[in-house]
Amino acid sequence: MIELKHVSKSYTAGVDALKDINLTINDGEIFGIIGQSGAGKSTLIRCINMLERPTSGEVIINGKDMTKLSTSELRAERRHIGMIFQHFNLLSSRTVYENIAFPLELYGTPKEEQKKKITDILELVGLTEYKDKYPSQLSGGQKQRVGIARAIVSDPDILLSDEATSALDPETVKSILNLLKDINRKLHITIIMITHQMEVIKSIADRVAIIEHGHIIEQSSVLDLFTSPKTETARNFIGSVSSNTLPEGLKNYHIHDERENADDHIMMRLSFRGDVANEPIIAKLARDYNLEVSILYGTVDFIQGVSFGKLIIDVSGSDSNITAAFNHLHSLPIESEVLGYVSGNI
Amino acid sequence: MSPEIFSLLFESLGETLYMVAVSMICASILGIPLGILLVVTEKGEILACPAINKPLAFIINMIRSIPFIILMVAIIPFTRFLVHTSIGTTAAIVPLTIAAIPYIARMVETSIREIPSGLIEAAESMGATPMQIIRKVLLPEALPSILESLTVVIVSLVGASAMAGTIGGGGLGDLAIRYGYQRFQADVMIATIIVLVIVVQLIQFIGNYLSRKADKR
């Protein structure tokens, strides 16, 4: 378990990079930290393995407070924490095999054992036939695979991922994320990843924290974040992968904020997740409340095997029925939001 | 050109190569570690230590600011102390070495600074000690660039060794001055220049070859 307690970091220039960060990351989970550039996420991940020393606070990994370790104790501890980087940081003078051997050399692992481990890892990351190539001969995705192999060859408990997919093209991102997920499952390595790409969080993270101006402003399971984001920043991030803005076509409806005519229809958005997706909500609105409902737009997405969806519907009916229907909607575990009013003759 | 001149030319070439080779080896042994020290003791680096870094940088700049011909005569007492003579080829090696050390140190410093800081960070994240980072990251990664730099220094030393005649050091430069210039033997002058050009070309060729071979970037 990794616990960050009241971690703050300020640089001498009086810039607060991190302010009172509290996080608990469980063993075996994939924990995502998302934020815009400059939000402090790089500093945060470096505070976990002490590449950056927090100004105050505790970083407790498996019961040990990293901030209180001596230099040599810290080096020993770092062997249990692998790290991968946006720009891979491979040694250009070493082959793939030699790059992966690097941490083992540092720890004085016997050559025979090195060979066995590296052969296994090469197999796992799918680079067996590239073992004698130099990094300059590899594609970005292959370089990151080497980076991952190097980070996990020493059997760490934790893998820190510093924007590991940010320099890769979308296809490669997918394959790297699958590899990380694989490693997480097969080797039970806890993965902490920082990113500015919601896609990354959505694909593999179990839980997520959103960091802004050095603060954690929201923390939840990824599913909760997508279905009920609490902050504007969270909504913006989600918008980047599942659009929260109105589809272009719907703008032709001339939506207005105020009801202008008595026969104006209400346009609203419903967000729901797996467990309620099976309920006949629309049918119920039509049948029990005698409303006319038409579906204007809908999406369904999956996060960690759970479906969640959004519907934009156009509702019309008598005021009392609408009020009653709204009360019913509010009693359900779905998010509903009135987007505006449109004139009745659409 | 008479056979005597021919053998003189060979003898001088031998002296030049001897002076350059020995001073280059000595200067590298001292200069390369000093160059590394210049980088790693700087603020924010793996062995940050301004108490070493600042004086070191100052001394290196100081020596580099002294023109070689002045350095050569200025350190005569030191030369005499070290090699028990202040004239001759061996005596010339001492100032050549002294002049080359800071030159090499600065060149190595520049080469090492070209290494992306992420590489050092990655090694630190794996628990590498500063010595391991120097041996396994900084030196191998900077090797192609260091080889290029050393080539430049060797060529400069060939040039500087021409001034060694001032303290009786001999060598090709001395030959060119004494025979070609002072005795008006233009053929000796031209022959010397041709030999020097060939020597420098060869050094550069070998240096480039080694650097390219080491470069996997």
From TrEMBL, chain A:
GO aspect biological process, one term: amino acid transport
Keywords: Amino-acid transport, ATP-binding, Cell membrane, Membrane, Nucleotide-binding, Translocase, Transport
Residue ranges occupied by any ABC transporter domain in the UniProt entry: 2-238
InterPro entries documented for this protein: AAA+_ATPase, ABC_transporter-like_ATP-bd, ABC_transporter-like_CS, ACT-like_dom_sf, MetN_ABC, MetN_ABC_transporter-like, NIL_domain, P-loop_NTPase
SMART domains, A to Z: AAA, NIL
Pfam families for the chain: ABC_tran, NIL
UniProt GO molecular function: ATP binding; ATP hydrolysis activity
Entry annotated with the keyword Repeat: no
Superkingdom as given in the UniProt entry: Bacteria
Family: Belongs to the ABC transporter superfamily.
Protein name per UniProt: D-methionine transport system ATP-binding protein
Source species of the chain: Allisonella histaminiformans
UniProtKB/TrEMBL annotation, chain B:
Oxidoreductase as UniProt keyword: no
Keywords: Cell membrane, Membrane, Transmembrane, Transmembrane helix, Transport
Transmembrane region(s): 17-40, 56-76, 82-105, 145-168, 188-210
Location in the cell: Cell membrane
Pfam families: BPD_transp_1
PROSITE patterns (UniProt xref): ABC_TM1
Membrane topology according to the record: Multi-pass membrane protein
Record flagged with keyword Manganese: no
UniProt xrefs under SUPFAM superfamilies: MetI-like (SSF161098)
GO cellular component: plasma membrane
Protein origin, superkingdom: Bacteria
Domain ABC transmembrane type-1: 13-207
UniProt-listed GO biological process terms: D-methionine transmembrane transport
Family of this protein: Belongs to the binding-protein-dependent transport system permease family. CysTW subfamily.
PANTHER family: ABC TRANSPORTER PERMEASE, D-METHIONINE TRANSPORT SYSTEM PERMEASE PROTEIN METI-RELATED
This protein's name: D-methionine transport system permease protein
